[in-house]
Known about the structure:
With 298 residues, this protein is mainly β. It has strands at 4-8, 29-32, 39-44, 51-56, 61-67, 76-79, 86-91, 97-102, 107-111, 122-125, 132-137, 143-149, 153-160, 169-172, 178-184, 190-196, 200-207, 216-219, 226-231, 237-242, 247-253, 262-265, 272-277, 283-288, 293-297.
Amino acid sequence: MQAASFAVCNYTPWDLGLDSLPLMDSPPAPLYGFSAGRMDVFWKGAFNGSLGDTWWTGTEWKSSVLSFSRMYSDPAPLYGFTEGRMDVFWKGDDGYLWDTYWTGTAWADAKISQWQISSTPAPLTGAADLRMDVFWTDSIGALWDSWWVADPGWQDSKISAGPMGSPPAPLSGFAEGRTDVFWMNTDGSLWDSWWTSGSGWADVKLSDGKLDSPPAPLTGFAAGRMDVFWKDSDGALWDTWWNGTEWEDMKLSDGPLNSIPAPLYGFAEGRMDVFWQATDGSLWDTWWNGAEWADSKI
């Protein structure tokens, strides 16, 4: 399917007769890597749900409105598909999946799905050269993939019947030619819909849970290892991880967590950090110190 409903837009506050841009109505969605010395932070504006970008030029912050189409989800940015391109995916007021992307000279809007979506889109690149995947949930809890290759362009594929109880959490990089999409089932169990070039898509139940948050996956800590962090109904932090031969569950912290866990790898060799908000509003880090997991209030 070729992208439809094309429009171009890139307005500064002064173009709109405003002293400043509208207030944000979504969490910030940052992106790095588009060009040297540049950062972009995308957001949904309180003014008509428009898509905004606040970006660092190398010397100062600037803001602009990229699309006036009304967004019905948080923005989901992606970089890495091709050099000199950024994409920001979102759910439109028509229920379909849209992409606001940088053409090299201007921002453009494109409607890219044939079916209506019911979750914030979760984009991914890296599964194959010149391919993008955007995962989403439909109204009955099935998992879908809108994916792009040069010919024939955007396509929609239903990859699992679910039923999903969370937005999809995709991961690439565990193994060449493999993509994983983690999700919480409506019964609180943890599932993985995974793809390999030789066998296609398959579903596997990783843990009985019970999950009380969307899963937060991570790879890179060690060769042949994946970790999926989640909060249980008591607010404890858990890790379901692939040890090379099978999946295991491990309770890392009693918490209590009041947020989705936010994992990080790369700060130091042999270290993982999982950040979370406590019920009193404080910020905590559960981190692997090389021998065991530890909690730190930060």
